[in-house]
Amino acid sequence: MSLPNSLSDQPGFGQSRVVIERVSPELDGGQFPIKAIPGDVVAVEADIFADGHDYLTAVLLYKHTDDTAWTETAMAPLWNDRWGASFIAEKQGRYLYTFEAWINHPASWQHEIHLKVADGQRITSELLAGATYLDGMVERAGGAKAEPTAVATKGKGKKKAEPIEESHDVKVLRELAALFRDGDRYDEAVSVAESDQFTFYANRYPERKYSTRYVHELGVEVDRARAGYSTWYCLFPRSAAREEGKHGTFRDVEALLPRISNMGFDVLYLPPIHPIGMAHRKGKNNSVICQPGEPGVPYGIGSEAGGHDAIHAELGTVDDFKHLIAIAKNYGMEIAMDLAIQCSPDHPWAKEHPQWFKKRPDGTIQYAENPPKKYQDIYPVYFETEDWQNLWEELKRVLLVWGSWGVRIIRVDNPHTKPFVFWEWVIAEVKKEYPDMLFLSEAFTKPRVMQELAKRGFAHSYTYYTWRHTKAEMEEYMTELTQGEMKYYFRPNFWPTTHDINPYSLQSGHEPQFLIRYFMAATLSSNYGIYGPSFELMEHVPFPNKEEYLNSEKYEIRLWDWDKTNKMTYLITLVNRIRRENVALQTTNNITFCTVSDDAIMAYLKITGSNRLLIIVNTDAYQRRAGMVQVPIWQLGIEHGQSYKVYDLLTGAYYTWQGEQNYVELDPYVLPMHLFRIEV
Ligand SMILES: O=P(O)(O)O[C@H]1O[C@H](CO)[C@@H](O[C@H]2O[C@H](CO)[C@@H](O)[C@H](O)[C@H]2O)[C@H](O)[C@H]1O
């Protein structure tokens, strides 16, 4: 908008008195969309005010980008010039929303006459002003102007206008205007002027000539439901065989699907499945020397057999992979692929597009690093290459090939070492072809960088959950994720461990600690995942002095005991079932922490509609803890002194509680958690 001293010739510029600002949500001045899933209520607010004391009307306008017309909904004043409204993002895709507001002169007029009449003043002149408002309403209701009743026709003198069938509203409004002008019916006119009928018509046919339209049209990116609620299981397909020393195949993975689906997982994430290079191939335990026969790291992508659009032959063929995707679908599961933009020196790109790799002055290429980690078996791709357009197009092509195989979820390895603008472009491009595609950002880095990736289009993001342990840390982190601006665009995906991270907190192998870490991930966040067989078996032996696993299957084929069941597999299966049956666990931001007298017991309410859960966990894996939980009964519609039942969905136990303060005791060696459904 130009400055006032430029005396803009924009129509209405000098007459628009309403200001619209401090819109929420609005990300970075409208640069990025907020996120939703179909059916979400998008609640918005703005400061809307004008000079003087006039009454205002404000509307929220929204539309799906497939629609041409905007839908309008009235905004309600909240407090101190803050206004609010909401709409439902019904379908997938992009919605836009903005605001418009204007001075509601008839409402201001009506308010003033109320005061004058109450003060005993006569309002004859005011009624005439009211009549002109009604004339305006007549016009906007589709009625012809009151005067003149004849129209001029060029060259033929005056001709009588054809009588037009007027609408009910027009007739009523004309009658009211006549009434306001009829000095003999003063009392009747005053009563109409003060009536709801007048308010109704003033709102139905508003004068919007000098309205203010908000400067931005803001976006809502609506992803499919799995963006909001998903349960991930990671496995290396080459370790899916049931025979020592045998390379696993996609068919072996298919054989595991019934088990993984019975445990309640709906996304099966596979680390890279492409040919693995020979040059600088790594050996067992991250050794830079590879012994003959060692399989290398799946992230060392590319060989003579192909690159990112090829499949590692020992796993199967493209058709086998498509078959796996189809069978997984029968079990209600999706396969997520891993995008790692890097190349073994043997990758076809290294030979065909040497300009995509940065050469050092001596002509060699520096291997990739994520300090302090060294990835000596791969070249990083050089995004500052002069040939960047072709590089981007090739990466997009790869993703479209994966889409053509039926893949609709992609976990992206280290996205934070590639330009943000690339992600924004490629995600949008791929979604044009495959609107269902979801991207998970595996960025363990600075907060601002993680946030920016989410804003640019990643549907899910890895988080710091893995390193948040105490009740205080957990509450603080959850508050940051769910109460501030991040709640609009950053969907956390909680992982207690990953194939890269064997956290110090779990290296003791202490079972209660594993159970607690699992349970919190699955109940704090609607999206969570586990590094499958390793986590189930509570694998914990570290590579010395590192947060990594000894004998990691990143470097070797492992034989897992897929038949093993234990307390962890039991808890996982049960909690995943509870997550499916309780909608309150299918959203992350519906959380309220409760005060507990013990500093290790954490309690949180999760409420969606009538589904009300109270989750209590002892974060101290070594000691029995007890304390009083303060239940915010006012949020639950429970009266002081009223008793209510809490039903533990984990154990089947019922407790009768009363009022706000209730006693809990949790022994980590028995079961360090409650998952209560509140029944009033
Ligand atoms: O850097 P991160 O900790 O986020 O880990 C991710 O990226 C790594 C590089 O792709 C990847 O590392 C693994 O693959 C490398 C290339 O083959 C190899 O040199 C590393 O030793 C191995 O850990 C890691 O698995 C991935 O999740």
Largest β-sheet summary: 8 strands, parallel
Number of strands: 32
What are the low-pLDDT stretches, counting only 5+ consecutive residues below 50?
Answer: 148-157
Beta-strand content bin: 15-25%
User: What is the CATH architecture assignment of the largest domain?
Assistant: Alpha-Beta Barrel
Strand order of the largest sheet: 23-22-21-20-15-14-13-24
Task: Write the CATH homologous superfamily of the largest domain.
Answer: Glycosidases
Put simply, the count of helices is 16
Mean pLDDT: 95
* Attached small molecules: ligand LMANGFYV
Shape: globular
- Roughly what percent helix? 25-40%
Strand pairing plus helix content: what structural class? alpha/beta
Q: What is the gyration radius calculated from CA atoms?
A: 32 Å
Indicate how many domains the architecture comprises: 4
How far is the first residue's CA from the last residue's CA?
55 Å
- The CATH class of the largest domain is identified as Alpha Beta
CATH topology of the largest domain: TIM Barrel
GO molecular function: hexosyltransferase activity; hydrolase activity, hydrolyzing O-glycosyl compounds
Protein name: Alpha-1,4-glucan:maltose-1-phosphate maltosyltransferase
EC number: 2.4.99.16
Function: Maltosyltransferase that uses maltose 1-phosphate (M1P) as the sugar donor to elongate linear or branched alpha-(1->4)-glucans. Is involved in a branched alpha-glucan biosynthetic pathway from trehalose, together with TreS, Mak and GlgB.
